[in-house]
Specification:
By secondary structure, the protein is mostly beta strands. It has a single domain, classed as Hexapeptide repeat proteins (UDP N-Acetylglucosamine Acyltransferase, domain 1, 3 Solenoid), CATH 2.160.10.10. Strands 2-5-8-11-14-17-20-23-25-26 form a 10-stranded mixed beta sheet, with no helix packed on it. Strands 1-4-7-10-13-16-19-22 form an 8-stranded parallel beta sheet, with no helix packed on it. A 5-stranded parallel beta sheet has the order 3-6-9-12-15, with no helix packed on it. A hairpin with a 4-residue loop joins strand 25 and strand 26.
C-alpha cells in the first residue's frame, strides 16, 4: 500500500486514485489546499507543493516533483521524471516526460514534449533525454518540442510550432521548424492596453 501524505484542506472529487502502484512504491506527498478533480490518477513517488490542482482525468506517473501553485490541466499526462517549478500552468491534453520546467512557465493546450530521439533500441536509455524550459517561458497551443531542446528564459513559442533546436532567451519563435522572428520587447498588444505584452512581469 502506497503511503499518502496530504496537507490541510484536500479536495478530492469522485474516482480519484492516489498512490497507484507502478515502477516504485514511494509515498505521494501533497501540500496544503490541493484540489484533485474527477478521475485524476496519481502514481506512487510523486511530490506536489501547496495549492496544487488537477483538471479532470489528469494522470501523473512516478518520480514527478511539482512545486507550489501549479495546475495540471484536464487529460494531461505527466510521464515519469518531470521536475516542475513553482507557479507553472499546464493546460489541457499536454504530454510531458523527463522534462525540467522552471518557475512561471505556461503551456497552452495540446503541447507535446518528447524525450526519445528515435524509436526504442536495445540501448535507447543511453541517449534519451527530456526538454528544459527556463523561467517565464510561454508555450503556445499545439506545440511540439523535440528531445533535449532548451527553451530560453521568457521566450515565447508560437502556436503550432515544432521546436527542433535550442531557443535563446527573450525571443519569439514561429513555424516548423521554429525560427526566431523577433525579440519579446518587439511584441505589440493588439488592443493597446499595454505598451508591450508581459510588461507586468518582473524579471528577477
Amino acid at each position: 500500500m502506497v503511503k499518502v501524505n496530504s496537507g490541510a484542506h484536500l479536495i478530492k472529487e469522485e474516482n480519484v486514485i492516489l498512490g497507484k502502484a507502478g515502477r516504485t512504491d514511494g509515498p505521494v506527498t501533497l501540500g496544503d489546499n490541493a484540489t484533485l478533480r474527477i478521475g485524476t490518477v496519481i502514481y506512487a513517488d510523486v511530490q506536489a507543493g501547496n495549492n496544487f490542482q488537477t483538471g479532470v482525468y489528469a494522470t501523473i506517473r512516478e518520480h514527478n516533483q511539482i512545486g507550489d501553485n501549479c495546475a495540471i490541466g484536464a487529460y494531461t499526462y505527466l510521464g515519469p521524471e518531470n521536475k516542475i517549478g513553482n507557479n507553472v500552468k499546464i493546460h489541457t491534453n499536454c504530454f510531458l516526460e523527463m522534462a525540467t520546467i522552471e518557475d512561471e512557465v505556461a503551456f497552452g493546450p495540446h503541447v507535446v514534449t518528447t524525450d526519445d530521439l528515435h524509436p526504442r533500441c536495445p540501448r535507447f536509455e543511453e541517449c534519451v533525454g527530456g526538454v528544459k524550459i527556463k523561467k517565464g517561458a510561454k508555450i503556445g497551443a499545439n506545440v511540439t518540442i523535440l528531445p533535449g531542446v532548451t527553451i530560453g528564459q521568457r521566450s515565447l513559442v508560437s502556436a503550432g510550432s515544432v521546436v527542433t533546436k535550442n531557443v535563446p532567451p527573450g525571443v519569439v519563435v514561429v513555424g516548423n521548424p521554429a525560427k526566431v522572428v523577433m525579440k519579446i520587447e518587439e511584441l505589440k498588444c493588439p488592443p493597446g492596453y499595454f505598451k508591450r505584452p508581459y510588461e507586468w512581469e518582473v524579471d528577477k
